[in-house]
Automatic annotation (TrEMBL):
Protein name as it appears in the record: ABC-type glycerol-3-phosphate transport system substrate-binding protein
Pfam families according to UniProt: SBP_bac_1 (PF01547)
Keyword annotations from UniProtKB, A to Z: Signal
Source organism (scientific name): Nonomuraea jabiensis
Signal sequence bounds: 1-20
Amino acid sequence: MKLHRPAAITAILASLLVAACGTSSDGRGGGSGSQTTLQIWDFSAEQVNFHKDIGAQFTKEHPNIKIEWRSITQADYMKTLPLAFQSNQAPDMFYWNATGLSQLLDQKWISPLSPSGTVPADFTKRWPEGSFLEGINVQDGKTYGFPFSENLYWGSGYMFLNKQVFQQAGLDVNNPPKTWTDLKNTCAQIKAKTKAECIAAPTKGPDMQRIWYAMISSVSTDEFFDYKTGKFDLTEPGQVKTFSFIQELKKAGYLAPGTNDKNFSRQQFAADQAGIFFDGTWLPSVWASQGFTSDKYVVAPRLNPDDGQTGAAGRKYDTNKYWVSSQTKNPDAMWTFIQWMTDPNGYFVKQYYKNAFGTLAYVDNQKMVTDPALKQIMQIGGQPGYRVQLPVPLLKCPDIAKSKAYVNALAKTPDAEWEAMGEALVSGQSLESVGAAIVKQRQTALEEGLKQEAASGLKVSMDCYTFPDWDYTKDYTKDMYKD
């Protein structure tokens, strides 16, 4: 389902709200029963049956609480959730990773995890030390979030190879392309010997991140901001070079034609109509839900430029994705569910891994993962230098927790980088010329915002965002932050 008009988005919101009404004792549904209903929203369509099972089991263990877990398409979700908050009809808990703690608090969207605002030590000890940080998921001593996905294996930047297409092309799927030139040679053979496309690469809006992250992560940083230089970097040499290579692939006919979204491209690969697809840790569960099992493809590392790896994918502390809504009327019941959901040996965790949905931050992944594709992903992601810890301005300058300058700089046309890439890919223009305006806009907003905040008393500056001693291929460790 793809609905993009405002009226259609409103209709989605209305259907979610009507469906959620019923037996709630919080006044939302008008029922007189004693059972509290918790509404949870996300956009994980492949997890609908899993969430139904989770809700049923939780209610079996907690008969006075019912879970209504709703999923819609990601594009619609990003429009529907803000409308729900504007109309004071938001769910009790929601999934959100587009912005962090500071902006969510500023928007008045979130409440602390527990009714008291603090969480006990037996809760936080489920995570590795350092998982709860002021400004990341803690503000003024109150805990608002918890790391959901771990940050070593979880993420984008993996290459998936279709066994049937590779076999038809006379290629060894266990000897994947390793460099940009290898990829071009592989594509030439697939195009010459099969009816399949070489790369099913979605290029519609933010979906372009699939191929982009698989290329740029070996060149510099997979962020649109370079913490080494303190600059928004879309038009920097490494980014321009990488995008030019993607344009090369398109010109040679190695990218599937059309401006396709991720769902179309995933289905294209699963239907043996493409040999290669780039995506992330979550993909095995998406394909499994469509009947495309892990014995039909292999997972390989991302590609390096011909002159070798000079960058790596970034690891972040901020993998907090589920938040308690500021509009919940059931904070005690919500806290009960969160504790149950994050039990490392509990039902949620066991079923999550049984369905191969990914890797969690509060679980021993080496012990729990059984899916062959996820095991391949863990082997790849666990290699030194495949993912590196990014510098964190907050750890250098604690007042960044109170700063809105960076958030405001990103808020100006949020998808502008992807839009610039899409325009350049279609027109053939250089990324440097198409992206210059957005880089200037973001950089000016950040620098001016920091200056204004510094004048008001915050200890912030561009120095907080600049780490000239960082090597793109190595972790920026805690001992590297200077007092």
